Amino acid sequence: MKLAMVQDKIVPLEKLNSAYLDRGTFFGDGVYEVVRSYNGRIFALNEHLQRLSNGLKAIDITGVNIEEVRDRVIKAFETAAIENAGIYFHITRGSALREHNCDNSIRPNFFLTITPLADQKIIKQNGIKVATHPDWRWKRCDIKSLNLLPNVLAKQAAAKKGCDEAILVKDDGAITEGASSAFFAVIDGKLRTTPQSTDILPSITRKYVLKAARNIGLQVLHESVTPAEAAGADELFIAVTTKDIVAVVKLDDTEIGDGGYGVYTKKIQEQFRLFTS
User: pLDDT tens for residues 118-154?
Assistant: First the structure.
């Protein structure tokens, strides 16, 4: 008899809800997006959907209509009626018995949640503390896949140190990005950030940060920094969909700048607000 057990309940396998057989659960076999709204308007949905489409193509998940995904996101957002919302959605290859290879006939699964975003006022005012951590992720970080265990472990390690984010460092000593954010350093009046490659996510918020930096006349260098260089930077900040731009005031045991928001970080924040209004 083929069976399954959920918590303490045993059920025949053929009667099991297919959600329990999702390849996203078994293998992380899927891609996801997180978008947000500002004052009742979803920000940068087109860019997020394009990245989702690129991710689906990269891992060869077919049969997904991106316009249908757009319609689902908008419908759910309008139904939730949350002005400042975090919208998470993912697509997996589908549900099937656990085998690494799968039948191409299975249909992709779609899942979405919408929740209010927490008030970021205090974080925005005070900045955050971060901790460096080895970058244990796979070699295709440009794909926004569901395989996030290394990110989770890094975030948990940072939290145990009283920090809000983990800053990931490769074996060669170069910082890539945050466990759930893009990372930036202002050094000698120039903005430095890791070059786009398979080492980092093509962050949508990062794209707008770079645009904001150029709008204020700040030179952008696509060059990685080491933890030592970051510790000596004039300013550090992260960028992430749910919080947009937040100053880093402490890296490991080193206070950054004067321990508050730097001039350029503030100016980039102001420019970024123009994109979301």
Answer: 888 777 788 999 999 999 999 999 999 999 999 999 9
CATH number of 121-276: 3.20.10.10
Tens of pLDDT, residue by residue over 241-272, are 999 999 999 999 999 998 888 999 999 999 99
Cβ neighbours around 264 below 10 Å, total: 19
Give domain 3-116's CATH number out of 3.30.830.10, 3.40.50.2000, 3.30.930.10, 3.30.470.10: 3.30.470.10
Taking the C-alpha atoms of residue 272 and residue 209, their distance in angstroms, rounded to an integer, is 7
Helix (H) or strand (E) holding 68: helix 66-80
Q: Which of 144, 155, 243, 250 is catalytic?
A: 144
Q: Where are the beta strands (DSSP E) in 7-60?
A: 9-12, 30-38, 41-42
124 is catalytic: no
What three-state secondary structure class fits 1?
Answer: coil
